[in-house]
Amino acid sequence: MQHEWLYIGLFLVVGIIIPIAPLIIARLVAPRKPNPIKQSTYECGLETVGESRVQFKAQYYIFALVFLVFDVETVFLFPWALALKQMPLFVALEGILFITILVVGLVYAWRKGMLEWA
Amino acid sequence: MTFWNDPIRFAADWLRDLLTGWGLAAQMTDILLALLGALLLITFSLVLAIFLVWVERKVVARFQDRLGPNRLGPFGLVQPFADIIKLIIKEDITPAGADKFLYNLAPVLALASVLLLWAILPLASVIYGVDLNVALLYLVAAGALGTLAIIMGGWASNNKYALLGAFRMVATMISYEIPMVVSLLIPAILAGTMSVRGITEAQGNVWFFFLSPLAAVIFLISAVAELGRAPFDLNEAESEIIAGFHIEYSGMKFGLFYAGELLHAFTFGGFAALLFFGGYGGFFGLQNLPAFAWLNNPFVQAPVFMLKALIGYWVIMWIKYTMPRVRIDHMLAFNWKFLTPLALILLMTTAVLDRVLDGSNWYVPGLFLSNLLIAWATVEILRAHGRRQRKAEAARVGTGCAQAGAPTAQQ
Question: Which class in CATH covers the domain with range A2-111?
Answer without folding.
Answer: mainly alpha
